[in-house]
Design goal:
The complex is a heterodimer of chains A (about 80) and B (about 525). Chain A is mostly helical. Chain A has two helices and no strands. Classes of the chains: A mainly alpha (about 80), B mainly alpha (about 525).
Chain lengths: ~80, ~525
């Protein structure tokens, strides 16, 4: 049987698992937004436009929310 | 005024903060529906939304939007030296000038602090739902439309969006009868005043054939110039419009809703209403009354003098006898409206115009931080079975939470206008503008009524430091609350000790920086 507090302790594992889930949620949302904004800005430079960054940002936020909801829903089910 | 019949990409850049807030508010609603176990995350998502909106705002001056077109201030003679000509958006119905940016930033700061103080409070009340944060963001969108609107239709839609969101927020404690009652009272009186306001605006539309404030200003201005007087219908339109505006800022005798709504609402929402909703109403009042209906200043100035003295007298006297903290702060908030209205009186004078405008804007800024700080401390008193809104509940706070007690003293002294705290500078510029415009009696009254304020603020301080606590348990203060108290405390002290950058910011907002 694993000693309490060790990495093999089931309770400790559970805490780490929860921490991983939370940090994944905290990461996925801004990441989607940054990717959307970055792609929009790159397209603006490439196509010499001035508004695609905004479209990228908005799409990034929408994608961020979709991912956030999916992750949170699946984390709740586990 | 260059106007496109269609929306251009520039329009979207200018309303980007509003788009951000809308997306985040809708996202929070969906997230709360589909992942209901993650209540606390909603607050962080809302804060992220505010951050994105703020990024959109800070981007506005940098991308050169203020270069180019002559704007609304060119109609106000005193401000002809405006260095940042504004830009119009959405077919000329919205103006993005420095004043808009100033108010938008103020709303975002107030909303962020309100969200920080809400998190543990909602847990205590067992009412942690995502729509709370979504409604705050929707109210913010309404406020932004009110501050940026130059078309009475947009202003009215913004006002209603803000008001409807706030009615729901006031009644958010569904199982609490006081909260429900407050919400209903606020809704009924709010709907009534909106009706009067809409009636006044419709009369202006009928008289001028335009819903644009700039056009209304020029047509009414010409009419007054030709006939020498505004005429009965214009006067009626002005009085009904002004009544609606004065109701929204809770000036006596249109204040009855405020103490009840403030007392019954969740404390975090009382904090939000007392600063953000009030600042939005002031933004709308400045746009409509000073800029849109400026040529009628001779008619509305005497009304404002009466309405300025009444809140100072009535609210200061009523506050003296209050034992409920939220009610006391509600009356104090009405008294502060009186001081700001004194600035509006001075605003009608050519000599004092700039100082009065600066005074009102600085007052709104300092009031936001010091009042939010005071309400944050009151919110933190909610614990287990203690509602925490009576003066008895704050008794002995020094023994239970010394840092919060010290900060409360700073907020209270600042609200009373004691130097070197932020509240002093708010009052100083208002009284200075009154002296410049030769309203010596009003300036004297303002100073005298400040002494009344000192009495009831020190009554709270007396309870905090001199009385024994009813409950000896240490007060649990959440991390969000600590951040909110730190921000408001630093701002209240900072503006008081080193007001220069904030004054520069205010000057910039009216186009002088």
């Amino acid at each position: 049987m694993a000693a309490p507090g060790s990495d093999n302790d089931p309770e400790n594992k559970n805490t780490w698992l929860q921490f991983a889930k939370y940090s994944q949620l905290a990461f996925v949302f801004p990441a989607a937004i940054v990717v959307g904004l970055g792609l929009g800005t790159l397209l603006d430079r490439w196509l010499h436009t001035t508004w695609l960054y905004m479209a990228g940002l908005i799409l990034g936020i929408i994608a961020g929310f979709v991912e956030l909801i999916r992750e949170a829903a699946s984390a709740s089910q586990q | 005024m260059p106007q496109s019949p269609y929306f251009t990409p520039t329009d979207y850049v200018m309303i980007l903060p509003i788009i951000m807030l809308t997306l985040f508010a809708l996202g929070i609603l969906l997230f709360d529906l589909l992942a209901p176990e993650w209540k606390r995350l909603n607050a962080f998502v809302a804060l992220a939304g505010l951050l994105f909106a703020a990024t959109g705002i800070t981007g506005l001056p940098k991308i050169g939007l203020f270069r180019g077109t002559p704007g609304i201030y060119n109609h106000v003679e005193v401000l002809r030296l405006h260095r940042l000509p504004p830009q119009f958006a959405l077919s000329g119905s919205m103006i993005i000038d420095a004043l808009t940016v100033y108010f938008w930033a103020l709303f975002l700061a107030a909303a962020a602090i309100s969200i920080l103080i809400s998190m543990r409070y909602l847990d205590e009340e067992h009412e942690h739902h995502g729509e709370y944060y979504a409604l705050i963001l929707f109210a913010l969108i309404g406020m932004m439309c009110m501050a940026a609107g130059v078309d009475i239709v947009l202003i009215f839609i913004g006002l209603e969006l803000m008001a409807i969101s706030t009615y729901i927020l006031v009644g958010f404690l569904r199982s609490n009868r006081r909260s429900n009652e407050a919400s209903l009272k606020y809704f009924l009186l709010g709907a009534f005043s909106s009706g009067i306001f809409a009636y006044g605006l419709s009369l202006f539309y009928g008289l001028t054939g335009s819903t644009n404030l700039i056009e209304i200003r020029s047509i009414i201005g010409r009419q007054v110039e030709v006939s020498g007087h505004p005429g009965p219908v214009v006067t009626l339109a002005l009085l009904t419009t002004a009544t609606g505006l004065l109701f929204k800022i809770a000036a006596i005798p249109f204040h009855q809703w405020a103490p009840d709504a403030y007392e019954g609402a969740p404390t975090s929402i009382t904090a939000f209403m007392s600063v953000a909703v009030k600042a939005a109403a002031w933004a709308m009042l400045l746009r409509v009354l000073v800029i849109g209906l400026g040529p009628l200043a001779n008619v509305w100035a005497p009304v404002i003098i009466f309405v300025a003295i009444a809140p100072m007298t009535g609210a200061n006297l009523a506050a003296l006898t209050q034992t409920n903290l939220k009610r006391l702060l509600a009356y104090s908030s009405i008294a502060h409206v009186g001081y700001m209205l004194l600035g509006l009186v001075a605003l009608t004078s050519r000599d004092a115009f700039l100082d009065a405008l600066k005074g009102i804007l600085l007052y709104l800024l300092v009031y936001t931080f010091m009042n939010l700080g005071a309400f944050a401390v009151v919110t933190s008193l909610r614990h287990r079975n203690v509602i925490g809104d009576e003066i008895d509940d704050i008794a002995g706070l020094y023994a239970r939470a010394p840092v919060e007690a010290g900060l409360m003293l700073i907020f209270l002294l600042s609200l009373a206008g004691i130097p070197p705290l932020a509240g002093f500078y708010g009052k100083y510029y208002i009284f200075l503008s009154l002296i410049e415009s030769q309203h010596y009696v009003l300036a004297g009254l303002g100073v005298a009524y400040s002494v009344f304020g000192l009495y009831y603020y020190l009554k709270i301080a007396n309870a905090v430091f001199m009385r024994a606590p009813l409950d000896n348990e240490k007060l649990p203060v959440s991390f969000g609350m600590r951040i909110a108290l730190a921000i408001t405390g630093v701002a209240t002290l900072g503006i008081g000790i080193y007001p220069e950058p904030f004054m520069r910011m205010v000057s910039w907002s009216i186009g002088l920086g």
